[in-house]
Amino acid sequence: MEIxxxxxxxxxxxxxxxxxxxxxxxxxxxxxxxxxxxxxIFLRLDALPGEWPHGLLNVPVxxxxxxxxxxxxxxxxxxxxxxxxxxxxxxxxxxxxxxLCGIIFLVVKLTYEWPQKFEHYGAKLKPEAxxxxxKYLGNERRTEKGLEPRVEITGHLENHEALADPNIKEFExxxxxxxxxxxxxxxxxxxxxxxxxxxxxxxxxxxxxERNTSFGPWHNQYFATYFxxxxxxxLHVLGGVLVFTYMWLPVSxxxxxxxxxxLANRVEVSGLFWHFVDLIWIFVFPLFYLx
Amino acid sequence: xxxSTSAAAHHESHEHHGEHEHHELGWWRxxxxxxxxxxIGIWYGVCGLLFLFFGFSLMMMMRFxxxxxxxxxxxxxxxxxxxxxxxxxxxxxxxxxxxNSLGAMHGTIMIFLGVVPVAFAAxxxxxxxxxxxxxxxxxxxxxxxxxxxxxxxxxxxxxxxFVPGGAAKxxxxxxxxxxxxxxxGPHYHLIWNGQTMWILGFIFLITSSLLxxxxxxxxIIQLRAKGLTWMRLPFxxxxxxxxxxxxxxAFPPLxxxxxxxxxxxxxxxxxxxxxxxxxxxAAVHISGGGSPLLWQHLFWFLGHPEVYVLILPxxxxxxxxxxxxxxxxxxxxxSLVFSVLVIGFLSFIVWAHHMWLTGMxxxxxxxxxxxxxxxxxPSVIVLSAFxxxxxxxxxxxxxxxxxxxxxxxxxxxxxxxxxxxxxxxxDLYLHDTYYVIAHFHYIVAPGTIFGLFAGVYYWYPKATxxxxxxxxxxxxxxxxxxxxxxxxxxxxxxGMLGMHRRWxxxxxxxxxxxxxxxxxxxxxWNTPISWAAWTMGLAQIPFIINFFWSIKxxxxxxxxxxxxxxxEWTAPNRPPHGNFVITxxxxxxxxxxxxxxxxxxxxxxxxxVEETERTRRRPEPETVLA
Lengths: 291, 626
Ligand code: HEM
Ligand SMILES: [Cu+2]
What we know:
Chain A is of the alpha+beta class. Helices cover about 60% and strands about 10% of the residues of chain A. The structure holds protoporphyrin IX containing FE and copper (II) ion.
């Protein structure tokens, strides 16, 4: 038994089956990420002043990843076009580039961007203790200038043992530059290039701290949404890479030899998915890195 | 093949299918790991029906606690205690936590493992390709994947009863922050606990309906038989089409919410946990800043379209059966089609009517009250069209027709009692009472589930080549109809007296319930309701036996036993892989019953239009009435 219109188009709809299928699937994906992005908006609007952090991500690295995804979106189209012109060799190369781009993206995420967060700590201060740490926070000036207050002190935690040991009364934090010069106007805006924590260690009484945790999803709503959305996006990238790899391997060459149009259709469909994944990132990048 | 179909066959293109690929599949591939839409449909159906009974059994257990709060359940209590382990039914008495588990899982199982699989996946899979004259679904492998995702999801849900702490307890709606902090702590596994497994199982179920929905829509768009234009589609196909869109677009936001709840429970986020949350007198160590309302919005964004997922396929089934048994074209086919499209669209913008009590402000309330009332208009159109279709017909009360006619008033009661809930001022009083329970059960239980039974009795001969026994079908029908009403009618009263839907003691300590209605106090009504529920359980036994017995011993019938008009009846009974012996071509609309000047009172869709018909102006269906 043959299912009609798997490769050729149905005359009255002008479509073959998988093309209808992928658009429907993408519609549902829009709703999935739509749900997550609306959660982002909801939570961000609800956040108290100073509780939505800015400038914690590495913008150039994010920008590079954005570029990588865009390049891969171009190469996948070239791969498809090569198949349409029946140039399998060219297809093979373009596909390889696409796959590598996907892999580089994931590697950057998993070996640099995410792990870096887990080493970074933020001590959220109790509201009554904020004045005590004014020299790190610079809130007087910020209030004057109409800026949101700073409510936590971030950097590298120098004494990890303090987290578990009740006998240690202080956290020692190697400060992020912002807290070294809180009143420097240059620190009013997030930095474009990432600046690592300094050697300047601040001692903060545990008594004054509400919570001191690393920048994991548990840290605040910003990181909760960041990890959830980029995590789910990362899974989509992984899915795309696996599908592309399958189409790049010799097994798919057999499909090509039987009916080149069949492989071209497959690449077209998965390419559409890949563009969608790219598009999601185009939203993720400004929402988390820039705004 | 009977005379009429073979006569029609002569006019059709003689394009034979299924003649080449004759390699035999092994038993497992043919009947279990099959990619044939009919086999998958039947699997969905059987599993779904079993889950309906399982979910109903959970409720039968709860009904004992409600009728006899604190009493030990005789005999069965001991057995249940053994099955579900310590802390559930110790000494035959139901523990409050266990009651909560049963309640949450009853709702979840009935809706997501029972009704959706039967109404959408089973009937959709089995009937839609046949009705549109297709050899199968567009993506048979995806179809099989959909079933197996459902299977895994269902298995995870059921398994969650047996992990320490038992199954999820926070209602089928899993409201946060309650659900976020439930089943957590030193006595629970991080993943293998009731609530987390509920989330995981759910994600599999969503995957399953996503794959199903994509497949259904693509199939309907791409694989319609030649000549089967959109306005010639049987109404059932339209309802499945809209249902698939609801599943496709409404489920993903809930999936997003589930992912967030999962993160809250496992990765320590606070998506749904507000700042300053105190549990058992102690502040919880969380980042806070989350929003419990966010969950409610995302949940009901699915939740409301979901109720239409439950009802639309039943509309479709009932429409087919009414047209077939009143021997008249379905009245107002076009308005029916546009009504379901409008319902589909509006069902996305009414969700907050489940949230009147959250105090959302009068502007937002006004919006959602308006849309909620708007959506009742197409619903009323659908119901009215069904009633008018009966008018002046020569009705045959076959077994499917009994169920289909019973559907009409039952759905009517359910729908009309929804109107007071649509106004937030009235709902402030009725919210979370048994009134709401009665409202939606009238729609899904004697409504949708009767529609499903109608469908099972109607298409059974196509699937098996035999009829189900008529006498035992009636023994199934009448007690079910009576019990349904004894169960749910008094719940309106209980609700109006203020009985809360989640009370574990059935309202024993509840004073306004002492007011007597029809000789019983609100609380005392629990006892007859429970007895009716158990009786209804017994009334399903004839169905179960009939269902399996008739596979071998039912009366053998020809390919079109109901003398119906749609394409599935042109396929041989127990259609082979690939379905049709001759690829069907449609020449006319789906409900050409009692065409004037014909010797038989039904004209199948694949019978070409004859010259005489062309010249004689055919009366519009509407005027046939007068
Ligand atoms: C025809 C017009 C309808 C209107 C105006 C309506 C209105 C409402 C409203 C306002 C509620 C919320 C009540 C509350 O929680 O306080 C509600 C609950 C509910 N309705 Fe309807 N409804 C209608 C039809 C339906 C249909 C067709 C179905 C299902 C097939 C349905 C299923 C439900 C369910 C399941 C709930 C309760 C959910 C829960 O809280 O667990 N309703 N209805
Ligand atoms: Cu609703």
